[in-house]
Specification:
The chain is α/β, with parallel strands linked by helices and 423 residues long. It is built from 14 helices and 14 strands. Helices cover 37% and strands 13% of the residues. The structure holds pyridoxal-5'-phosphate. Pyridoxal-5'-phosphate binds at residues 61, 116-118, 121, 144-146, 157, 206, 210-211, 239, 241-242, 266, 276.
Length: 423
């Protein structure tokens, strides 16, 4: 595999950008190598600067449910760009996308668009704190809610690769109101609510965890979170930045039939452009400025290019698409399990529709400790071998794999063949 150009460009990047990247996991530190530098993408395929071609199972970390450069997204974006890229003023596109999301996501009656998932989650917490007039936030080990100060303890995704459990630069006072519990552990939730329930502003959770690999909620986990937050007057926040419009049209809340108070979105609703959003019922959302006293703003929020890409993406999604994605997901899961079995390797492939995880482990993975007990050391070697065989996977064991509508059965078979080839 030729990589001279990628290497040359990455060396150049490292001179002016910390670690050569604008987001840590991209640096391939977890797999002890240098990243490939991407030149283009179309459908399920990406090409690097040396002309190597890969089947992409990262999909820009989730947004590209239609694959790269989908014609209807490109068309919508070009049309929007020609009319002016940003006004910092209202457009009808915002109404259109807001209405589509309100119709789709059970918990959302009103929505505020922001520019990233991080902005969505940090604003959701501010709103929850204002609504309840309380400070404590409960989050779960291995869940990732973006890079705002209050979330960066024992967090998933790139944070999981750091040596320290809390990022440097965060004052104790900022994180002191954040309590981190094990995912899928009902007992610890009961315990903390018994002790501090009246002071808990919100519980924030990824209803399907996608930032420590993929971990599905055990039966009763989400139900109990809903029940206990209601009992104590705390806010339940579903961080559906990954799962929103990924696992089905209404998100994980539709699958599990749980209605949170606030839902955070991102990724797919921006069709590959920088977007986030948070929403809930009228009562809570009317507290946001200028209607209410919770301040939150953004120069480029709701900008027409991102709104157009999001709209074009959502317009391509319907029940039939999700059922096709489920079939392809089931196919990849079955095929990979069998392929590894033939190589005498036991794996766990937790999956919901088109998002799945891969753990080298004989036992079910339910929480962060289980993730750490899986054979993480296998992953480096596996990632490199897959890359050499034309399969692009997230360069960390703590991430989710995604299939798009553009992935074919042949793409999936090539994934399996790459595993067989790389013994
Ligand atoms: C569940 C979840 N929440 C929040 C975020 C933060 O989103 P962003 O990277 O757009 O700030 C991410 C990012 O991957 C995420 O997976």
């Amino acid at each position: 595999m030729k990589n001279n150009r990628s290497k040359e460009i990455f060396d150049r990047l490292k001179k002016s950008i910390p670690g050569g990247v604008n987001s840590p996991v991209r640096a391939f530190k977890s797999v002890n190598s240098d990243p490939i530098v991407i030149k283009s993408g179309k459908g399920s395929i990406i090409k690097d600067e040396d002309g190597n071609q890969y089947i992409d199972f990262v999909g820009s970390w989730g947004p590209l449910i239609l694959g790269h450069a989908h014609p209807s997204v490109i068309k919508a974006v070009l049309e929007a760009v020609e009319k002016g890229v940003s006004f910092g003023a209202s457009t009808e596109l915002e109404a259109e996308l807001a209405e589509m999301i309100v119709k789709a996501v059970p918990s959302i009656e009103m929505i505020r668009f922001v520019n990233s998932g991080t902005e969505a989650t940090m604003s959701a917490v501010r709103l929850a704190r204002a609504y309840t007039k309380r400070d404590i936030i409960i989050k779960f080990e291995g869940c990732y809610h973006g890079h705002a100060d209050l979330f960066l303890s024992k967090s998933g995704s790139g944070m999981a690769e750091m040596d320290e459990p809390v990022s440097a630069g965060i004052p104790d006072s900022t994180i002191s109101e954040t309590i981190t519990l094990p995912y899928n552990d009902l007992e610890s939730i009961e315990r903390i609510f018994n002790k501090k329930g009246n002071k808990i502003a919100a519980v924030i959770v990824e209803p399907i965890a996608g930032n420590m690999g993929v971990i599905l909620p055990i039966p009763d986990f989400l139900e109990r979170l809903r029940g206990i937050t209601e009992e104590y007057g705390s806010i339940l926040i579903f961080d559906e930045v990954i799962t929103g419009f990924r696992v089905n049209y209404g998100g994980a809340q539709k699958i599990y039939n749980i209605c949170p108070d606030i839902t955070c979105l991102g990724k797919i609703i921006g069709g590959g452009f920088p977007v986030g959003a948070y929403g809930g019922n009228h009562d809570i959302m009317k507290m946001i400025a200028p209607q209410g006293s919770v301040y939150q703003a953004g120069t480029l929020s709701g900008n027409p290019v991102a709104m157009s890409a999001g709209l074009a993406t959502l317009k391509n999604l319907n029940n039939k698409v999700y059922s096709d994605l489920e079939n392809r997901g089931a196919y990849v899961e079955g095929l990979l399990i069998n392929t590894f079995k033939e190589e005498n390797i036991t794996v766990q492939i937790p999956r919901c529709g088109s998002m799945f995880g891969l753990f080298f482990s004989p036992s079910t993975i339910n929480n962060w400790n289980d993730v750490l007990s899986s054979k993480l050391e296998f992953f480096k070697d596996f990632h490199l071998k897959m890359l050499k065989n034309g399969i692009y996977l997230p360069p960390s064991p703590f991430e989710s794999y995604f299939i798009s509508t553009s992935h074919t059965i042949e793409d999936i078979i090539k994934f399996s063949s790459a595993i067989k080839k790389s013994k």
